[in-house]
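ok so for the tutorial part 2 we go from a plain amino acid sequence to predicted structure tokens. step 1 is just haveing the sequence, like this:
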Amino acid sequence: VQLVESGGGLVRPGGSLTLSCAAHGFTFSAETMTWFREAPGKELEWISNINPGGTPDYATSVMGRFTISRDNAKNTLSLQMKSLKPEDTAVYYCAKGRGSSQRGQGTQVTVSS
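step 2 — the prediction. this is what the tokens look like for a chain of 113 residues:
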């Protein structure tokens, strides 16, 4: 299993960013995929997942601002983030399945003016 996140960066409050996760080494289309984040000094936080059929689920903290999607033909998971807040600053990880044990190296998102 290999998961490679990309798309992180520095963005101003209220801005937008889209993260991508390239998946390799397993049958991507058959798996629920999940996004987690880890803010400085805080525990890993679940923020969203999407099942093989494309049904998403979101944490309350990001609902209405973040959109998860998947492209099974390209083995790619995405997270579109809008109306970003300083408290969204974290390292963002994609993971295979609903747990966090099989996740990528992460991509840093910093929301700051």
